[in-house]
Specification:
This protein is α/β, with parallel strands linked by helices and 387 residues long. It contains 14 helices and 16 strands.
Length: 387
């Protein structure tokens, strides 16, 4: 079966790596897959990947004029979908596996004209997330109202729905009318490509933790972690690394706390060196005040695949009723905007006293969250779709 794996818009380094790893795993699972990333700022083609550079010169010119700048988002979208439709028509496939980009008039226009089966892959509940962000820019306002107007119409023309959690899959299915084939397949990772964590010891005196923040979104819980660290008492010294995108206000707050280090996004060997210093990975802490109860963040898969125990404050799609993983993660409650850091210390003491933490975590990761495992779930679902 020939599949086009489609992503529109600028992708972060983490998402780009995820898409390429998934494409490789799909091919190993027997699908003839070509990844197409539109609007990446590049223009590259290989046997398995196409990165399309889309000119935005007109929208950039319009964006310089008073009032007219509001039309620049629509012009950007028009350019992206025209380029996408042109590529799709010249490279027909049995199925387009489409990383859902948020609906607007131009996505609806694309769906009316592409004449190929489209399976959408959903990573969030868009309308609620956009509502949280729409006060920050016109860009989010445009997509909030576009999603409200065109969301149902776009979904109703799809051939399949894949949500990264059951919660997201169920929501998208209902919005589409409840008649489109639907499944839930959570995020994975290429376990072999992730460096094995070096074995650390923890005697209860000095604990090093890390939080990877891929964006400034509130659900990462950076504020929760910093406030919690400011209230720590006891004999255990806590060293904390914050790596990635955090706000200026969070940086200022972090600098006032002892033993908190703020770093830019870490990749490759820099990320390996950072992670090797850490006993515990901090997963997402802020969903309680957000709009999702279930999730499967990439940073948690990063910790898990390396062999680093982790802390979360949400229901993880791969940890629901997962008895084998119970000893290796701690799910905390957020109360009054705080977590109990002493619980984290106690968790680390108990776990590191048992030994074989890294080896066992990586074994479980290879069996449960590796992309090769997830790929077989994609293949099974795509093959089950009506022709």
């Amino acid at each position: 079966m020939k599949v086009t794996y489609l992503s529109i818009g600028e992708a972060s380094p983490g998402v780009s790596k995820k898409l390429k790893d998934k494409t490789e795993s799909f091919r190993e699972a027997g699908l003839d897959v070509h990844l197409v990333m539109v609007g990446t700022g590049k223009d590259v083609t290989s046997d398995t990947i196409t990165e399309l550079e889309v000119s935005q010169s007109l929208s950039q010119k319009i964006g310089k004029f008073f009032i007219l700048w509001r039309f620049s988002v629509a012009l950007e979208q028009l350019a992206l979908y025209k380029a996408t439709l042109k590529w799709i028509r010249s490279h027909p496939a049995d199925v387009i596996l489409f990383r859902y980009p948020v609906s607007d008039f131009f996505l609806w226009w694309f769906m009316l004209r592409c004449q190929q089966r489209v399976v959408f892959e959903y990573n969030t509940i868009e309308i609620t997330e956009l509502n949280l962000r729409r006060s920050t820019s016109f860009y989010y306002q445009y997509f909030y109202w576009s999603e409200r107007v065109f969301g149902k119409m776009v979904r109703s023309r799809s051939s399949g729905i894949i949500g990264v959690t059951p919660e997201i899959a169920n929501y998208q299915s209902k919005l589409a009318g409840g008649k489109i084939p639907t499944t839930s397949i959570s995020n994975g990772i290429n376990v072999e490509r992730v460096a094995k964590h070096r074995d650390l010891k923890f005697d209860g005196r000095e604990l090093t933790i890390v939080l990877l923040a891929g964006s400034q979104a509130q659900w990462h819980g950076v504020d929760i972690l910093l406030r919690s660290l400011s209230k720590v008492t006891g004999d255990c010294l806590i060293n904390c690394f914050l790596a990635g995108q955090i706000t200026e206000q969070q940086k200022e707050y972090a600098l006032k706390l002892p033993n908190v280090t703020v770093l830019p996004g870490q990749f490759g060997e820099d990320l390996d060196r950072l992670m090797d210093q850490c006993h515990i990975g901090i997963g997402t802490l802020g969903f309680e005040s957000s709009f999702l109860t279930q999730a499967c963040p990439l940073k948690v898969r990063e910790y898990w695949a390396r062999g680093i125990p982790f802390v979360i404050a949400y229901e993880d799609a791969d940890l629901i009723n997962n008895a084998e993983m119970q000893p290796f993660f701690l799910r905390l409650e957020v109360k009054d905007g705080l977590i109990d850091v002493n619980e984290v210390i106690s968790f680390a003491k108990k776990l590191y006293a048992s030994g074989d933490v890294v080896v066992r975590l990586r074994e479980l990761a290879a069996r449960q969250i590796d992309y090769r495992v997830k790929a077989m779930q994609y293949v099974s679902f795509i093959n089950s779709l009506p022709k």
